[in-house]
Amino acid sequence: MEIKFFKKIPFLSEFSDDELKEMSDLSERRKFPPGSIVLYEGDKNKTPYLILKGRIKVVLSDKKGKEIIVSILKEGDYFGEMALFDQLPRSATVVTLEDSEFLIISPEVLLDKISKNPRLSLKLLSEMSKRLRKTDKQIGNLALLDVKGRVARILLNLFQEAPLENGKDYKTVARPPLKDIAAMSGTTRETASRILNDFSKNNLIHLTRKNIVIYGKLKNKAGSS
């Protein structure tokens, strides 16, 4: 399974099948239930993780326990690669949102392969740059948008990542826990709930127990072109 999976990852796609098999053989698979902490901010290990199944949230928190969700990653994404290069402690905590499975890649093997193929390091740097830009945008949203705009932006991001349904201007996505929407938008659960209900009343979204139907006209609320 891993070799086909690796081929879908941009910076790994140019490895040969033999190289990918070696990497797979020297990697470890681990499963975590929902709510598990995979990495703690400040951890000193340097191992990169590839998400084979499930979703995780990348979290920053203060001494009082208040958290901000920097990003949510899903199957096919990876994390932990920064420590591979800068040799610094983990910069954030990673928590599973659902049953998840990871491939824990041997850092020595990965660095060896990258050192022999400079194009791979350029691809990885490109992917890291895209991720940093996304993080910068998230921080900018927290700083510049009002709370309603921040919640709208979160929903719009979900809208953009989901496939269109029969060419219509709406998409159905899994409903994130309210606490996660609050953490991503830097507000309280009560305020996030009130805003979601307000969007629903104005036919910008439709809420069910498990899903959110997001209509394209929500873009105006998020300040999107």
Brief rundown of the structure:
This protein has 225 residues and is of the alpha+beta class. It has helices spanning 2-7, 17-25, 82-86, 107-116, 118-144, 147-161, 178-185, 189-201, and strands spanning 28-32, 37-39, 49-53, 55-61, 67-74, 78-79, 93-96, 100-104, 170-174, 205-207, 211-215.
Keywords:
about 220 residues; alpha+beta; Arc Repressor Mutant, subunit A; 2 domains; four-stranded antiparallel β-sheet; 8 helices; globular
Can you walk me through this structure?
By secondary structure, the chain is an alpha+beta fold. The protein folds into 2 domains: 2-143, Jelly Rolls (Sandwich); 146-220, Arc Repressor Mutant, subunit A (Orthogonal Bundle), CATH 1.10.10.10. Helix content is 41%, strand content 23%. The protein has 8 helices and 11 strands. Strands 1-8-3-6 form a 4-stranded antiparallel beta sheet, with no helix packed on it. It has a 4-stranded antiparallel beta sheet with strand order 2-7-4-5. A 3-stranded antiparallel beta sheet has the order 9-11-10. Helix 4 (107-116) crosses helix 5 (118-144) and helix 6 packs across helix 7. It is globular, with a radius of gyration of 19 Å. It starts with a helix and ends in a 10-residue tail after the last strand.
Strand order of the largest sheet: 1-8-3-6
What is the helix fraction of residues, given as a range?
Answer: 40-55%
| Alpha carbon gap, first and last residue | 40 Å
Query: Number of domains in the coordinates?
Result: 2
* Overall pLDDT confidence: 83
Strands, total number: 11
Q: At the fourth CATH level, what is the homologous superfamily of the largest domain?
A: Jelly Rolls
CATH class of the largest domain: Mainly Beta
CATH architecture title of the largest domain: Sandwich
Could you tell me the radius of gyration in angstroms?
A: 19 Å
Q: State the secondary-structure class.
A: alpha+beta
The helix/strand series, from N terminus to C terminus, equals HHEEEEEEHEEHHHEHHEE
Number of helices: 8
Q: What proportion of the residues form beta strands (DSSP E)?
A: 15-25%
What is the CATH topology of the largest domain?
A: Jelly Rolls
Low-confidence stretches: none
Please tell me what the overall shape is.
globular
The largest pleated sheet is described as: 4 strands, antiparallel
